[in-house]
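Blackboard transcription, Thursday session:
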Amino acid sequence: MKKVTFGTPESVVPSRYCREFRTEETPVSYPVSRIRFWKNDRGCVLEFPVGTEQFFGFGLQLKGFNQTDKELILRVNADPRNTAGDSHAPVPFWVTTGGYGIYLDTARNIEVQTKVRRASDGQTVMTVQIPAARGVDVYIMEGKTISEIVAQYNRMAGGGCRVPEWGLGTIYRVNWHDPQEKVLHTASYFRENEMPCRILGLEPGWHSHSYPCSYRWNRELFPEPEEMIRKLKEMGYHLNLWEHAYVSPEADIYEEMKPYSGDYLVLDGLAADLSPGRGREIFAKYHREALVEKGIDGFKLDECDNTGLVEYGWKMFPYCSRFPAGMDGEQYHNLFGVFYMQTILEALEGRETLSQVRSAGALCAPYPFVLYSDLYDHRDFIRGVVNSGFSGLLWAPELRHAASARDLIRRLQTAVFSVQCLINGFYCEEVPWKAFDCEGEVRELLQERERLIPRLYAAFCRYRETGIPPVRALVMDYTLDEQTWTIDDEYLFCDDLLVAPMTEEEEMRNVYLPEGRWRDYWTGEERESGWHEVRTDRIPVFERI
Ligand code: GAL
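(Written on the board underneath:)
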């Protein structure tokens, strides 16, 4: 890995806030001297030499996969409906089939063209405009495979996250309006019907006020939260609470947080400054004392992804905002998810979790949080799984409602074979499979998830030590196999599984098995490498032998 500094980097950069940030300086063969750098009125520009290599990464891209020949503006956006770079979790890190990957240490919305021709000499180059900045640190990593390169990037951030075994079990989020009794009823339903579920999640209704958040129990719906938590624990559940960081005047911490908030309100609440400092301490201490010490094991950190860009009719803090610690709105948008995860980990004080967050960014491998979205296209969700591994991110392709039993089962299959098996019933009157005649199949799938936990747990341990993520696009391990360069609907899961989910519309699908020997995970039948036509009601899964 090589670090090269161009110009004068900004002081607000992701590495500064990454506690375990460390680099392993080694010589690289990348032609560093051919990188061009200049400043312009809009900030600064980097120009990289490129050849025939293919590009991947740039964070959680739900719509795009192979980024060769693309134009992207990396921008945090809760509603990423196109391939232009908007993302819940944009990351200024890309990997290539050319044996190298590059990380730019910036909290700006970079503008990228992965291949463009210079007028002066016809050379093909990659350009990156960094707004506002007068310089940047560039980290170049090399490896034979993309997995090796990504592993270095993740180790640079401190290695993959530690997760508890229970965090890998199914999590069910109950209806937003469910009262205490109904929550307990749902909890019993899973137990009585032998449907494994380890975590229950409460949605906005648990707050006395949720947009903005009070972080206090709604006593009408939850007259005795302590009693409910005790009963849930007795049944073996862990509990997770929804929230966001726009603080309501009803919140106990409102007055204290005032000086530690951005200069624009969101939903008439304070936009908490959760960068390291007093504001974070207040927020974390309150969460620890009021919630964690009362038995809460995790949180769902919503709306930290520039939600105002969605047509909800409410506005996010603008890019011109100032936050007390000195950041502007653009920088804060890019770091908000990271700060929020760090704050909650401080509140948890070393207790393990696998929680949810709707925004993340650079150097996020160490955080035990999965990303999720309000989008719901199953193909996009599968692509999210495939892409997440390029950028040190975890993504949960959650199940909510379904159009048919087949749609429900297909979606649940994908959730079962992903890092977190998340069922989000936040607007469902009852568990989503009640509407269809498929409880038996759901039970089998949830039991399959339990059987997968030891394997997945081992993959997380490896992630922690080596930086190799538990979910990888085929091109990450089989980088030089050109077939893999466009496969955005199959992925390697844990150490040695290959998963090829199917959607409701598909009667059959083609599955590519890269070089090596494989066997069908369900039937044990051996398969040669190459393309296979697969027709099954199960999710196609193969095991490397
Ligand atoms: C959304 C979130 C959903 C659900 C909902 C509740 O922002 O993405 O998963 O929690 O809020 O209002």
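Lecturer's comment: The pocket of beta-D-galactopyranose is lined by residues 176, 203-204, 242, 302-303, 374, 424, 426 (CB under 6 Å).
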